[in-house]
Amino acid sequence: MSASWYIGVDIGGTFTDVVAVDAESGALHHLKVPSSRSDPAAGFVHGLEALDAEIGVRPNELRLLLHGTTLATNAIIERRLAPTALVTTEGFRDVLEIGRHWRAELYDPFLEYPGPLVSRELRFEVRERIDAAGAVVEPVQGESAAAVVRALEDANVESVAVVFLHSYRNPAHEEEVVAQLRATNGWYVCASAELSRELREYERTSTTVLNAALMPLIDSYLTRLETGLEAAGSTASLFVTQSNGGALTPAAARARPVTLALSGPVAGVVACSRLGRTVGRGNLICFDMGGTSADVSIISDFEPRVSSELTIGELPMRLPAVHVHSIGAGGGSIASRDAGGALRVGPQSAGSEPGPACYGRGGTAPTVTDCQLLLGRLTAQFPLAGRLGLDRELASTALEPLADELELSIDDAAAGVIEVVNAAMEGAVRVALRSRGDDPRDFALVAFGGAGPLHAAELARRLSIDTVIVPPHPGTLSALGLLTADVRLDFAMSELHRNGEPELATALLTAYDSLAAQAESEVSGDEQLRSRTYSSTHSCDVRYRGQAYEVNVPVELEHLRAGATEALFEGFHQLHYQAYGFSSPEDECEVVTMRLVATVVIEKPPLDQVPSRHGGGASSTRSVFVPGEGFVDAAIYERSDLAPGAAMRGPAVIHQADSTTLVPSYAEATLDPFSNLLLSIDAATDA
Amino acid sequence: MTAGTNVRPTIETAAVTIDPISLEVIRHGLVATAEQMATSIERSAHSQVIREMLDYSTAVFDVEGGIVAQSTRIPMHLNSMTRALRTMLARFPLIGWRKGDVYATNDPYSGGQHLPDIQTFAAVFVGDEAIAITGTLGHHLDVGGRGAASYGADATEIYQEGFRIPPTRIVTGGVPNEVFFPLFEANIRVPQKTVSDLRAQIAALSIGAGEVVRLARRYGAPTVAAATRELIAGSERRMQAAIATVPEGVYEAEDIVDGDGLDDEPLHVRVAVERRGDTLHVDFTGTAAQTRGPINCPIASTESAVYYAVTAILDPGIAPNHGSYLPVKVVAPYGSALNPRPPAPVVGRNVFTHRVATVVMAALGKALPDRAIAPYYGNSNVYILSAYDDAGRANVQFEIEVGGWGARRGLDGPDCLSAGIHNLANNPIELVENEFPLRVLTYALRPDSGGVGRFRGGLGAERSFEVLVDCELSTQFDHVKYPPPGLNGGGPGAAARILVERDGVVDELPGKSGGRRLQKGDRVTVLTQGGGGLGPAGERDADALAHDLLTGKVSAEAATAAYPQLAARLGS
After folding, report:
1. Which residues in chain A touch residue B552, judged by CB atoms under 8 angstroms apart?
2. pLDDT at residue B99 is higher than 60
3. Which residues 16-35 on chain B approach chain A with CB closer than 8 angstroms?
4. Poorest-pLDDT segment among A576-590, B18-32, B457-471, B541-555
5. Phi and psi dihedrals of B161, rounded to 5?
6. Does residue B118 register a pLDDT over 90?
7. Confidence at residue B79, expressed as pLDDT on a 0 to 100 scale
8. Could you give phi then psi for residue A123, rounded to 5 degrees?
9. Percent of chain B with pLDDT over 90
10. Which of A242, A492, A618, A664 has the highest CB neighbour count under 10 A?
11. How far is A571 from chain B (nearest CA, A)?
């Protein structure tokens, strides 16, 4: 029996989604199993067992496993991290605690701020110093380093992070101390330059400490996973998705677990980007709405926006990551009345436990999902996610006190809650687009996640967007996205250069040579990658002198080899203009960070085959609330009955196991040849 | 002061009532408008002050100049913009504003703050009717005057502090004023950056206007107008309810500013806070007369700091707008340092504004012990290094250091974190060392600097560096002679210090000095203020002190001195 199955496994807080594609037949299956909070690796293996039991795919038939997980994210947010020590340059152990010393909340002086990731007594200093040019001011003082090693042996830590000033420029001192640490004890050790060779000591320290603190957790998780897979008889290669949208081997994930921070949400964006190529839409707003939050990402010109300024739980991570704007608006968001009398929705959420009142699991606060149920857009007879039944009575009881306070009928209150949550999301999307000067009308909206397709049409109309795309399996899009990723390895190195300086091209080439050597050593050192080919792209971060933010500019090594740097700076002025609305070609420019991205292509299963369908019509009608019209009879469709070419005028509701799509009266839905639902939205007269 | 009588009654507002859903939907729209304006400025501004330090703010106002919705940037700015706008409307009634007109001012004596802060305003039109006003405030790198960055530490008149823009129309029907711009550019040091930043502020006004117009088209101009009224009224009701929780009475607090840098006299800040019904009267009678040196605090800044303190203590969750400020009445005698008479210099107003906030918070803390918070570090600790490179180009390093927060009821004060009326980021050391010839030796928390007490004040910071070239140092520190006081029995935080070491000899500098010459190899150490402690030291929790000893935030010696019994118990 040949191993022909490609499997994507996306572990979320509540459910684990499994997608299986057979490279030979093109068959595609989805499964949803409960996640195991106490043992996520067991949840993964259960997913594979379910695949065997329900679909008959045996573990030994698996070729490739691609995995996305929120394990690292949740560990960071909930601070379930390994006890970790930090070793810094003498005089700078408090950099981690002081941070950039600004606060996220302006008015509340009574907030309790979480302490630093490493408490002060576990932060140690070594006497050494390197200057901004990378020159040694003072070598590592042996006695000082030895004293730190002794102190660490008395400290009860599993992991040690080492961050010295200017190590992005010259990592020798970090390497020297790390070698001593690795020779001494069984600690997990991470030096900042191994992870991020970018200047800004606080951000690099935070990134390195997070990485060190995640290493034991991710190592033991991957070990349990590998053991479980082996025991089940699978010999498939395993890859994990990282925040930059690419995949990573387990060996690399063990060394750089912090790159898994956005492993979960990013896979959905990668899937959207592929979807965009399939349907020929380069500008997409990815709208992923689940139980507790809505994640919005922007794809422009077919590429997800990547930035190096990711923050999780207010902790910065200086690693390239797909930019995800998270909005505190989900199906579980709670509606309430504020002290001044206004109606508020969120940010409090009933989450998945107890969940919306209509889940019947003890929730009593009215949520967005309760309101959708009351408005007929969801139905009690059509359980969410294939497993949950919904109770309309409970939803109504939960909303009643709020409706009374607002002096509104239950229906009007429910419609109001939906309108408010949509207005909040509209505002957030507008602000996200404005940061690059984009106009929403140039985008299509891709709706996914359990709740996305229910809100998408109304949100699109508010934004004057004329097209909504609902992919075939919106609830498991992220799992499918896993299967479309290649291995992406990021290498970066900060070194300040000015335009016009002599031998600039040579200096840049030297830096890229060094990055290429790192890439080569990483690929050849990884047994899962060694035999594969890879390609490299080069770029650098450039800014106008005195500016604090850089623009990433593609670099052609050919030009540099010819001694030319003009194209680079011309590119910078152009990109700066695109991003910020102005350029200053007469100003001095600084190159801050050189970057190399190595892409190792991994084989992909066929994903665009569409199973033939019989093409059924509306299965029934139901009374559904439409804004401005009240309750109207809406046609109810089963998505699995629809064949490509099917066209449905709203008002209609399209059901499928993992989501529900609302087609309002001002929209028409069609099924495209790839089984995507396309909603064409009539322009609002007031837009 | 109100411009209401000058306003053409453009929209029939009185009859329109608004339902709670439309109100919340429009509120989201207005807040997103202010945020988009802010994002637009961040995107297109040129200078580091705006782009890195985020020292700018944006807001939407009603046609009478009341602030309705604001972006989350700098509290100090937002609370004050209504005064500048109303002064503008008194000078230029709204009836004369046209589409494409932009009005601007930076005049501290016309409702502004200090000259580097330029405010711009434009009306939002639906058809010919003005339905709202959008506004921005940006701190500019330089607006001229005797000192680089317009910080003249020894200025004695506003005329020395830079280019003063009284309420002025700087753009008419989309056309920049041909007198104003060349005149402005000729009087400032980095005209290209400053004017670019000003253009970014102007562009943001029209982005904001576009968004408000969209809301008006969707919901109807009368509904949007009704929403702005109700948003202000809602915040007013909520603030009145919060004020009603203050027991009736008069609560006093005071503090001392070291001096103005020219005359070395202590300057008292005194406040009496009285709750009368659902209004709060905040009276600074008894505060020092205006000073010769440039630390006077224009009335808009004084009011702004009071509004911040009241909001923070009484109801930080409120949607802050004009309504939340209405029930707070500020009295600052004309001719005092908190309401100076022109032409008193004001660029260093933050020496006083922080203190206005901390004394008001301290006074309210006496009224509401559960909301008590001791004074924080209380100053924007500015220091500026300047040198010329071989090519004769100026190299300026500008830093503002913060310190410890005051202890709060139930919680120690956070260590070294932006507090109160400002919110700033530090510059990365690795960046600074790339930009300026200096080597940082230490950047650390300052042990034992937090005020002792049942709850400990936050720690200040210690930064020391060696300069690698000859250069000049200017500073504007305070709480050097008189430290941040404790509250309700807590001890004071440590005072700030500035030390210069040359050839092993240490020289202690005064808090405020301009142009101190440094030689290559000199080592400068700045130590910032700790926050005040709250409650008697005798009530400190043993575990809390043990943790302070473990982390080294409190030394054994200091613990023995401040908490003798507890320290002895822990030691045994």
Report:
1. 120-121
2. yes
3. 19-21, 23-25, 27-29, 31-32, 35
4. A576-590
5. -100, -5
6. yes
7. 77
8. -110, 125
9. 78
10. A242
11. 18
Q: Which pLDDT does position A485 carry in this prediction?
A: 85
Whether chain B has a CB inside 8 Å of the CB on A549: the answer is yes
Task: Note which residues in 481-540 of chain A have CB less than 8 A from chain B.
Answer: 496
Residue among B21, B408, B439 whose CB faces A109 most closely = B408
Let me know how long chain B is.
Answer: 572
Chain A contact present for B172, CB below 8 A:
no
State the average pLDDT over residues A24-43: 82
pLDDT surpassing 50 at residue A362: yes
Which pair of tokens denotes residue A619?
């299965």
**pLDDT above 60 for B8:** no
Q: Sort strands B102-105 and A303-304 into parallel, antiparallel or unpaired.
A: unpaired
Bridge pairing between strands A123-126 and A84-89: parallel
* A103 vs B contacts (CB less than 8 Å): 417-419, 423
Q: Which residue has the higher pLDDT, B285 or A77?
A: B285
Q: Which two tokens stand for residue A114?
A: 């979480």
Token output for A241: 């998705």
CB pairs under 8 A between A and B: 212
Over the stretch B269-293, which tens digit does the pLDDT of each residue have? Answer: 999 999 999 999 999 999 999 999 9
- Contact map slice: A 352-411 vs B, CB within 8 A: 406, 408
pLDDT at B6: 41
Per the structure block, which two tokens stand in for A69?
């997980």
Any chain B CB within 8 A of the CB of A135?
no
Say what the pLDDT of residue A612 is.
Answer: 53
DSSP string, B290-308: P-SSS----HHHHHHHHHH
- How far does the CA of residue B481 sit from the closest CA of chain A (Å)? 25
Instruction: Note the pLDDT of residue B50.
Output: 67
R_g over Cα of chain A: 26
For Cα atoms A563, A569, A572, give the angle at the middle one, nearest 5 degrees.
145
Q: Quick: pLDDT tens for B220-272.
A: 999 999 999 999 999 999 999 999 999 999 999 999 999 999 988 999 999 99
Q: Contact A431/B28, CB-based, under 8 Å?
A: no
Q: Flag whether residue B418 sits within 8 Å of chain A, measured between CB atoms.
A: yes
Q: Interface pTM (ipTM) of the complex?
A: 0.92
Nearest to B549 by CA among B447, B478, B464, B457: B447
Task: Tell me the average pLDDT of chain B.
Answer: 91
* Whole-number pLDDT of residue B429: 96
Residues of A in contact with B416 (CB under 8 A): 94, 97-98, 101
Average pLDDT over residues A309-321: 83
Contact B445 A426 (CB under 8 A): no
- Do the Cβ atoms of B533 and B448 come closer than 8 Å? no
Residue type at B138? G
Q: What is the mean pLDDT of residues B161-176?
A: 96
| Band of residue A687 on the pLDDT scale cut at 50, 70, 90 | very low
Residue A578 is inside which H or E element, if any? helix A566-580
Q: Do A199 and B32 touch (CB under 8 A)?
A: no
Q: Which of B21, B49, B54, B217 to probe by mutation at the A interface, max A CB count within 10 Å?
A: B21
In chain B, count of helices (H) and strands (E)?
14, 20
Q: Which of A111-120, A155-164, A468-477 has the highest mean predicted lDDT (pLDDT)?
A: A155-164
Residue A385: name the closest of A474, A471, A456, A468 by CA. A474
- A62's enclosing H/E stretch is strand A62-69
Chain A residues close to B42, C-beta within 8 Å? 435
Distance (Å, whole) CA A194 – CA A215: 14
Q: Which residue has the tokens 């801050």?
A: A592
Dihedral angle, C-alpha A138, A142, A144, A145, nearest 10 °:
100
Strands across the sheet with A123-126, in order? A123-126, A84-89, A159-163, A188-191
